[in-house]
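Q: Predict the assembly, please.
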Amino acid sequence: MAARRQAGGAIRAGAAPCTVRHDAGGMMDTITVDLGARSYPIHVGVGILDEVGARVREVRSGPRVAVLTGTTVGELYGERVAASLHHSGFDPITITIPDGEEHKNLAWLAFLYDRLIEARIDRDSALIALGGGVIGDLAGFAAATFLRGVPFVQVPTTLLAQVDASVGGKTGVNHPAGKNLIGAFYQPRLVLIDVAVLRTLPRRELAAGLAEVIKYGVILDPALFELLEERLDHVLHGDADLLVQIVGACCRLKAEVVREDETERGYRAVLNFGHTLGHAVEALTEYRRFLHGEAVAIGMAFAARLSQARAHCDAATTQRLRRLLKHAGLPTDVPGDLGPDALAAAIATDKKTRDGKVQFVCIERIGKTRFEYLSGVEIVAHL
Amino acid sequence: MAARRQAGGAIRAGAAPCTVRHDAGGMMDTITVDLGARSYPIHVGVGILDEVGARVREVRSGPRVAVLTGTTVGELYGERVAASLHHSGFDPITITIPDGEEHKNLAWLAFLYDRLIEARIDRDSALIALGGGVIGDLAGFAAATFLRGVPFVQVPTTLLAQVDASVGGKTGVNHPAGKNLIGAFYQPRLVLIDVAVLRTLPRRELAAGLAEVIKYGVILDPALFELLEERLDHVLHGDADLLVQIVGACCRLKAEVVREDETERGYRAVLNFGHTLGHAVEALTEYRRFLHGEAVAIGMAFAARLSQARAHCDAATTQRLRRLLKHAGLPTDVPGDLGPDALAAAIATDKKTRDGKVQFVCIERIGKTRFEYLSGVEIVAHL
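A: Predicted assembly structure:
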């Protein structure tokens, strides 16, 4: 399932040699995100949390390191990570932020700057994000902007963050007027993914993360999609080797897309499959009713239906996607209380809109996409 | 005075073709800052403020543009710039920040984000900084971080900002714990320098800007240094053609240094000549007694004396530098009330310190520098 660029512009599962290997501790996969001087490795494995110290030692870092985490993940894994860092000769401080997206804002960013200054973090000190997307986005933006940039290490602990947020360099905070309005593109030096931590992830969040995994299969990798169709129950039951394989495949696919288009000027938009309507559903339900992955699942099922209606794909493709999403326990229908007018208006405020049109990602078949440029009204006509 | 890299690593005045030309409105110089995909032009001329609209039109920008300015510069030039933008079909909004370094902070940054959101600035909209270093740093950081980056245009109106802050991509805000602790490297799309606005610059600020001009001569360009020795009175009296020539030379020199080392990992440190002690003097006098350029003048005179004491340069070099600084009306002596212990401690908190040593820039002769790694105590021993 290694990503490979086709002449036609799509990415498909290729025959590139796979770097997955078996260690004493289980399977281990290493992906290199190739961005020239800013290239970095992603290590995916089981129990890798105990290697944080040794791995951070491999990237240049002075003795002081700061770990940013949330309340729940901090209680579960904070001490283990700190012990690993101590064991490798670091003098870590842990900064804990209350759980919840509402803390991903400028006020908590300022709090974080104050703690970094107190701890005398400098340009040789690594800032480590231990948590989900909120922690990664906030810590990444702090790392991008403190002293004009300090080394950043991601240790994502949700499936969504592991397959999505840990690759691509998007960092930022929310503003009352919209999500992620303040931010920067900033690459980590290292990403460490321990799939064993997914055992403590709530079932609903695991499913929401699977929505993004399914997305990678739909847009880029038929083999990944088929693997999910065959072995989804094993994934849901936490099969560690299978999780290493799947998370590694997603990271590899996203790394290839990001390499092609680091700052989101064109091709990277393929990753927005399901997100145009998904974002509108999230916004209209005030980010409370659905997890991000759930809204994306609704958006993907809709995007397939739109693609079918516009004769880009056949009914079998739409059905396969809906079936897999439902199997994962994800919603596929737009809630009845969200009217077309409200959805069209929400789509029109998308920050990627140009001249009133959205670059909408359609599918042609599993593993192949195409762009259409549509207004909000044209999109909701397919509801 | 075009900058050219020598094999030995220094930059010297070279024989590269000069792009200076005479327009109807006077001399005009264009420098290209060569940073690959992020390259941008600097136009230096007389009356160029009236060309802002046409020049911004040349870089990709949608109809909405925002001009950030300070109270005084806004009153003097805000309407002229807005008129030029209107004339070229833009719909500009002007955002005014009170004058003074104390407004370069996170609170005013948040104010700026709010105004950009209200004005519906998007990734196609240019953010224009019209002012000195405070405005440029604040607007640049906002441009770097709003929507993860919007196009940024610099229109610097102080001599210091024209020769220094407008090249190099350093943006940021202050924190109570230190200056520029929060920031990013972010390149403008375009820099427009109108030397005619220097007529309204207070004499003391003109002299402070000259300190940085003199610095470029000392570290990189003997011909520039000699030109200043010969024609400083004309500069001080506002000779426009001479100012175009000098400002253009400084921008060209700095552009060459930045091209070699965009994110300040090594060679760019040559620009810190005079700044190690200068920063300490500024900090100990709480940024109130001296303008930045004045503190740098004190720091340069001291660095020459230290270089001479350590047998790197001769007494004649030290004398030439002191004479030129005094001629410009700049201070050259460390104030008697700042003791060596306090200065050594202030130097030790420099954010570029590593292992307790500072990379101190010494001179060998006019146009040639060398680095020494010294502790604060070793430095102040030469007071």
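The longest strand of chain B covers residues 26-33. The CA atoms of residues 66 and 74 of chain B lie 13 Å apart.
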